[in-house]
Amino acid sequence: MDETWTNMDETPWTRAKKSMIRACYMDMDELFPEIWGLLLGWLSAKARVVSYFNPEYFVDARAKATGRVRRIERFAQTLNDKLARPQSNLGPEKIYALMHARLKRYDLITMFDVTVAKGPAGVSPSYQVSVELKQEEWDRARRYDGFSVLVTPPDISLPAARLCQMYRSKDMVEKDFQTIKGLVEIEPIRHHTDPKVSAHVTICMLALLLERTLRQRLQGKCSAQKALEILADCHLNKYSSDEGPALYTTTELDGEQRSLLRKLRLLHLADDDYVAGQISPR
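Structure (tokenized):
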């Protein structure tokens, strides 16, 4: 959905916001005219709004929300187990307080009805707590799971789908930074001259390119890091003597390593004759 909001300063919400700003900064006209002008300009600005649905976010949000509900139900059961003990002396106020604190932790205070019931006289337990999900409230809260809203200046004329694609691509950049800090290990940099620092960063960027290429070729077979762990025992071995030129051979592959190299279209790297033909004797 793509929509352009105009004349935002004419809405009741914006007028109220202006009133709040004026109430908080009574002398801003005199003291900070530039800031005041920027605020008013922002309030009256036009904006382009694009909404989109992300199935991955939907699944993740629903899973997390369901997990929070299950944790509340388990907490209520655990609390009832404690109340069933003969030495329990928790009263209704304390029980409500415990449930309220737990619901507040998971931001579910408005989603549950909590009931504390007293058992028959002389029968243990004397109190039991029950929680019931408010299905209507829950459905209302979950109706926007997976939806996101992007706000851009109105002069950006790219199609809505392209805007969403560009925004989502930032995730790849963030993951690349995680990779170069983790798997590639760009830090620490133990160099002190510009050429050496530049060479270190260049090598790390080439390693990042290798990691991304591995990821694309593996196509879900395993992660790039797992592939490197599997192939860690594969080596190029050199045998040299005074009687003749050096001989090169590769480590004998096991089934998993061979399957992985075949998936990467690099099985020729385990061929001794091919490797020997590519190496200049040293």
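The CA atoms of residues 28 and 35 lie 8 Å apart. Strands lie at 2-5, 47-53, 112-118, 127-133, 147-152, 236-241, 244-250.
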